[in-house]
Amino acid sequence: MVNGSLTKFAMTQIGRRSGNLVEDLFITCNSFEERCLGVGREFSQDYRAKYSCIFRYEANPNEAEQFEMDRRKNFAELSHILTEHSEKPVLPIYCNRQNVGDGIGQFRTLFVDFLAPRGCSTITIDITCFTKLYLFELLHFLVQEANISSLRFAYNQPKAYGNAKLTQGISEIFFIPHFSGTFLPNRETVLIVFLGFETERALGIWEHYEPSKTVVVLADPPMRKDYLDRAERENAFLITRPGILKETMNPYDPFEVTDKLDEIYSTHCLDNRRSAYNVGVISLGTKIQSLGLFSFWRRHKNVRITYAFPQGYGAGYSTRKIGENLVFDMGF
Q: Rounded to whole angstroms, how far apart are CA atoms 223 and 263?
């Protein structure tokens, strides 16, 4: 059971929105993780969407064969669940995980040419298994381009995180296409780092930036008492570098994340209330932190959001089990 401030977001069933008999669109992402099924398995019997869309990533040539086998199995069940709860046939988007323009481009065409003309204003997104790269670009399209003013988000927490590594190595560092920010060569850089359990990715991006000031943000969720200790252990090298500033936040409350980022920005990134630094953010925490970061970025579009592909995914992802669902309504 979720404790503390998260109780207000916990839902045992994903039901209809108040006053809406049928939702316009449900969006989700398939994965080799069983957690991609966690939200759909908890649909209420009367939940209905006119249309449902599944992003389905292609196999990575460097990944273990079992990942693709699990992905196919989960896709079959997810398609069946959505067929039961959708008025129209499920809309799959087969796409390249590393080429965000592929999947978001397909979705943009589908939305503009097909969904929007039929009315598409009430939307729920299951963010559980989207990569952060895809999640940010999907949010950018829906909010910035399609002018959707509010979205409902569902997220399935891992039942437990375990001790296995989530990712291995780092292959490429880049800023997310629509989140490049404003970086001037004559300015020093402040780097804000959401730290999770991916030591190599965090260090790789930090070294890439060579920031003059770094603020690390460690997750301290109220219902996982060992989470903060593990994050500190796994990132001990980075957080003990000279001049590193440390903050904590609840990673499962997007509104608290936005407020904390505003506080950090005002304290460390401004001079006499004016932008004085290049500001970069590394989001290696939860997907819900990414929602809060997107809301923050909407007010500070000079901020650059950076992403790094791992060389591979570890057993930590494939062994995580379905936990409790959290549901958020956010206005933009």
A: 24
